[in-house]
Design a protein that fits this description.
Length: 242
């Protein structure tokens, strides 16, 4: 396939849910500026890894830096093609208009988790795995799990429908959901900042187009878009260490 042919086809992207808001917003401008379009499939990082283990591929992927590094070691992602794009912390949301609990300290968070009647979080997503560890550390895992609604998509939608009073997920995954209000991030002592990175599959049909999309997403001028979608630029102290 020639370079011209490679850039003529759509870019196939396997992306974490955390970057969905950004990719949706920039799609039109990217197409106007480059003449390229992309089609994205959105999964949690761990669901994406499961699909890749079963043989799924694409032109590029956007997942956690830890997962990208693993795929590079396995020879699935091209070494040298990876770029950190954004980072995000885990937050809590409630149904729109509902009272917002105090979660400003670990003690307040523990009290809020015990007092809520129901809570939604993910099973396979990085936020859900970390939250499961948090409630173990707080000694309230059994109480929280008894009233949990588990989902592997946008858990904020469960809360928006009134099926759970509280939702826990990456802030960037809560923000696109209509019908919820974000309470705030988890306290620093129990927070986990995830760095999201992009890389090109060794089996990519359109590596040239994928490289252009990765470069576009890494441009500093996109920082306001990241912030608007609940993400942050990758800080030096976090870069590559998620």
């Amino acid at each position: 396939m020639t370079g011209t042919d490679a850039t003529a086809i759509s870019i196939n992207v396997l992306s974490t849910l955390a970057l969905r808001g950004v990719l949706t917003e920039i799609a039109d401008e990217f197409r106007v500026l480059t003449g390229l379009s992309f089609a994205a499939t959105y999964k949690s990082t761990n669901m994406a890894l499961n699909l890749i283990a079963q043989g799924a591929t694409a032109d590029m992927t956007i997942i956690t830096r830890e997962a990208i590094d693993r795929l590079v070691r396995d020879g699935i992602i091209v070494a040298g093609s990876t770029t950190d794009l954004a980072q995000s912390g885990i937050g809590i949301a409630v149904r729109a208009g509902a009272p917002k609990p105090d979660i400003g300290t670990v003690a307040a968070l523990k009290r809020a988790l015990l007092e809520t009647k129901s809570i939604a979080f993910s099973r396979l997503g990085a936020s859900g795995i970390h939250f499961a560890d948090v409630i173990e550390r707080l000694g309230i895992a059994d109480e929280v799990r008894r009233k949990a609604h588990i989902s592997d998509s946008y858990v904020g939608e469960v809360t928006a429908r009134g099926e759970a009073e509280m939702a826990v997920q990456q802030i960037s995954e809560l923000m696109p959901v209509a019908g919820i209000d974000i309470v705030g991030p988890l306290p620093d002592e129990v927070q986990k900042i995830s760095v999201f990175a992009a890389g090109i599959f060794r089996a990519a049909r359109n590596p040239g187009g994928a490289g252009k999309l990765i470069s576009y997403l890494a441009e500093p001028r996109l920082v306001p878009v990241l912030i608007r979608k609940g993400l942050e630029p990758v800080s030096d102290r976090r870069r590559g260490t998620s």
